[in-house]
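Table 4 source record.
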Amino acid sequence: MDERLSTTQVPAVIGVADKAPAIRLENVAKTYDLGEVQVHALRGVSLEIHAGEFVAVMGASGSGKSTLMNILGCLDKPTKGRYFLDGGDVSGLTKKELARVRSHKIGFVFQQFNLLARTTALENVELPTIYAGIPVAERARRAQEALERVGLADRADHFPSQLSGGQQQRVAIARALVNNPAILLADEPTGNLDSRTSVEIMEIFQKLNDEHGLTVVIVTHEPDIAQYAKRALEFRDGRLRKDIPIQNRSIAKDVLPTLPALDEDDVEMVAEREAEPGAAEALLHNTRTPG
């Protein structure tokens, strides 16, 4: 982990410890059966994340961080232990019940933007409102408002192929915000972006966290990106090894003026490829309420 992150074990972030945790894991374990082999992805993880925190989850490949995010996002259930989301135990919910929780409480942002190629930015952002049962008249208003929050109100009618990578990720963030979730989960959200655009995305996350109080949890393997969070969780071999506050936190709006501006070709660049194959299926899997 980055040397700027303290190695001292400390309790939850000061200033939020008196609030009920938005996320609480109690001795959570996850085991996958692969034929005759059992893979222990998580081994007795206990932690709390309070409302309004900004947490970075770090660790090498196979450390358990992705499994953790799947459980936090109600995409998977623990083999053992309990998961409390906003005070409610969701560990034993059915798939249909978990889908409802995802739809109303959690916003997802992925490394692959997962935008529908033949659908405008506004329509992409609207999609989760359909599965959440939001009235038709309300959908476009919510979607437009979400695009405004990420600075893309003037791109509402553009298709993904007409947007840069950074703009596509902003649309994906707007889509995650459209149902007013309590928690935003982002899995390697800057993994496909250049350095400057990555900082611009972190500026959005910091603004959502600092100004709107949104709880943000990101998975990243980049120490520089973790430095924009307020707290870091480091996983190794399925266990939480460090839970530490960020020292000398980076502030994106202060960092951006120090970075080289994109040249004209970069600014005018249009993404050459459409959304990844299977994007629609991935989005439906993560937002849809079955039945």
